[in-house]
Amino acid sequence: MYGREIKAGYGVRTVAVSVTFTMKAAITSLLLAVVVALSDARMDALRHVSTGKCPSITNKQDLEVVPYLGTWYEIERFEARFEEGMDCVHVQYSDLGEGVVEVHNMARTAEGEFADIVGTATVLEPGVLLVVFPDGIPAEYHVLDTDYTNFSAVYNCEQLGELRYEFAWILARHTTLDQDIYDHARKVFQDNGIDVSHFQSTHQGEDCPYST
């Protein structure tokens, strides 16, 4: 095709420029397609998206898995699409052995039905676990701080270009938190440069279908 069009030096340069632009356009389109696909995948899971870099956070370096096992209740969260309309959210962590923890999330849907999903978590580094659910994207679970008996401050942020995708939870061993412990949990996020104004309360109460 190009051979028939090349008749002189100028033609060669013209075709070269055309091919270069075509390749650049193709590469740009491919990169944009990848970014859109990744964005769509994240957006399927997440509502809280903003511009800027993920904050530099400090995980709980001496996190111990065994005392962290058991039931935790969600007190507050950053709104996430996979939790949209859900309340009574709680999770059961169980030891499966060989460094693997079962993650059993439970909640009541907006339609009033009980919903649950089971995944696994493994320790990546101190204070960080990799959580995987069926047909889901593996995600890091950063424990910023916990006292094991009252609260846990959990966070994750994923960077995609200029966008950051944030998950955050305040968990408790009971369905409520004392005010001083709650204030401390929020301060943990603030000390890590995380905007706590994005937190939304999760309903917990006697009307919830708790399984434990």
Automatic annotation (TrEMBL):
Subcellular location: Secreted
Main location: secreted
InterPro entries reported in the protein's UniProt record: Calycin (IPR012674), Invtbrt_color (IPR003057), Lipocln_cytosolic_FA-bd_dom (IPR000566)
A Pfam family hit: Lipocalin_2
Transmembrane parts of this sequence: 15-38
Protein name (record): Apolipoprotein D
Signal sequence range: none
PANTHER family, alphabetized: APOLIPOPROTEIN D, LIPOCALIN_CYTOSOLIC FATTY-ACID BINDING DOMAIN-CONTAINING PROTEIN
Biological processes, Gene Ontology terms: lipid metabolic process; response to reactive oxygen species
Organism annotation: Scylla paramamosain (Mud crab)
GO MF annotation: an example: lipid binding
Keyword Electron transport: no
Electron transport keyword on record: no
Keywords linked to the UniProt accession: Disulfide bond, Glycoprotein, Lipid-binding, Membrane, Secreted, Signal, Transmembrane, Transmembrane helix, Transport
Cellular component, GO annotation: cytoplasm; extracellular region
Annotated ranges, domain Lipocalin/cytosolic fatty-acid binding: 65-204
